Amino acid sequence: MRKLGRNDPCPCGSGRKFKHCHLGREDELWKMGMGDFTAENSAMITSLPQVWFGRSREFMDQLDLPELTGTTMGIRFIDLAAYLKLGFSGRNSAAGNAEGAGGLMVNVLKTRLTDPENIYLAVSSRIGDSALVHQLAHAIDFMGSSGLMPGLCRALSYDLGIPPEHLDHPAEFAACLESLMEKFGVQPDADDAIILFLNKHGKLISGEDIRNEDRFVLKKRSEEMMSFLNERAQEVDEMIRELPGYIGTRGRSE
Q1: According to the model, what pLDDT value does residue 158 have?
Q2: In terms of CB atoms within 10 Å, which of 1, 33, 139, 218 comes out highest?
């Protein structure tokens, strides 16, 4: 792995200098799939052909990314199965299951080495509308809202003992998600319905709080979120019962 300078951007993608982020916690970078990552590795990702699975082309044709994000960056879709075969995903999650119908946002620090102009979304050939909108919301939120990538704070969530989803889905992400679902007439799945419900009631954590990594604030907000879901468990269950991805009442297990 190239030796990082103290003032280099941290490979985790936080946008902060290495000395203010993962210096002294380099082992966490390995868990995120950034160990020994080179420009050659990056090129293996960015050279994967563009794909248009599901309604991806239709959605992109209707999105004005510069207006939405205030940037000139674009979004490229690559085949999830092909990406996973490269071994650079850094984790084996349900979202990254090539046999499923989901997708994931590729760590920007991995693709920026050879293509700084695009965000890469690895999507399944069977991706559904709700999963596609979910990944688009992550990309747009990163480019123009919270600036956070999904998976960025997993080590922090484990350290605090809070669900990673509480940090992966800030309030700004939920706003992007809701806007896209309304624009394209997409019904949320059970998990996204809960995210939107929490945001409607002001229970999601803000991107600013996540970036500040104030452990007391994050722990407190996560506990408040869990308490709220427990108190409204029956209402939540009735809301999501008929939605895709329903696995039963959400509460303490969320």
Answers
A1: 84
A2: 139
